[in-house]
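Lab notebook page, bench 4
Experiment: in silico fold of construct C2
Operator: M.H.
Input chain length: 194 residues
Purpose: comparison with the prior construct
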Amino acid sequence: MEPRIAEVARRIHALREDMNFSLAEMAEAAGVSIAEYKAAEGGETDLSFTFLYRCAEQLGVDMIDLLTGEAPHLTGYSLMRKGDGLSIRRREGFEYLHLAPNFKNKLCEPFLVTAPSREAEQNMPIALSRHVGQEFDFVISGQLRFAYEDHVEELAAGDALLYDSGRGHGMIATGGAPCTFLAIVLKDHDADTV
């Protein structure tokens, strides 16, 4: 199952109105301009992981609520068989497979990510994004170029990263082939206690 942008945008719009958040408040929470937020909420643009994550945080819901319209319901454990999961295509060419969409009150968001290798990106600066918390990435196959603010690292199968995802970070596949990696986005627990 892959969520449709228009459906997800309608859910965000409905929740924003139900919770009486202004466009400006949501745009600020999402880290985008009001015009960019309005276009995203209108279903006119793709919805990045960071945008969805920040909107879910602001609206006080699980990101899966936004993606599927259903609240996660499993509490003991969640088993996902090989090849299963909630497919999310939110960055051009990147495929995210959420590995625990039905687990309630997650402390993290686990994804199997496949990044395409694009020749045009190889000599360009890597686009950076930010989201609250930390992220752990483990390269399963292929090669990955990871940018963290002004640092760049080259990774291969078996390499792992843990970083503050509230600071600028981004990645591209290198070596002429896709890169598959496990990405575990850890939520910021300090934000919950404030």
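Observations: The longest helix spans residues 5-18. The chain has a mean pLDDT of 89.
Next step: discuss at group meeting.
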